[in-house]
Amino acid sequence: MEVERIKKKRNRAPQNQPLGQRLVHFAIAARKNAKQLAPGREKEMLLRKARQAEAAAELEEALSSPQVLRHGGTLLGSRRL
């Protein structure tokens, strides 16, 4: 007896802004919200997420730069293993 698989349809919303821009806006909002909080765990978590979003935005920008694309996907000065 075969089990029917029910596929869930993904809820995909079209993105109006590039990923890097969305990450930067998220980081700005997280830092703004963190400023309004008293020192504590929640504030530290928001600041951590802001730093992670900023790092991800920088990484996304570096990986999508023309230099990386022109050199076969490797960063300038780095070696492939």
Describe the protein's architecture and organization.
Helix content is 56%, strand content 0%. The protein is an all-alpha fold. The protein has a domain of 52 residues. The longest helix is centred in the middle third of the chain and has 23 residues.
Provide keyphrases for this structure:
flat; 81 residues; mainly alpha
List the helices and strands and how they pair.
Elements (H helix, E strand, L loop, with lengths): L18 H17 L5 H23 L2 H5 L11
Helix pairs in contact: 1-2
Distance between the termini: 48 Å
Spans of at least 5 consecutive residues whose pLDDT stays below 50 are: none
| Largest pleated sheet | none
The string of secondary-structure elements, in order, is HHH
According to DSSP, the number of beta strands is 0
Number of distinct helices:
3
Q: What percent of residues adopt helix (DSSP H or I)?
A: 55-70%
Mean pLDDT: 84
Strand content: under 5%
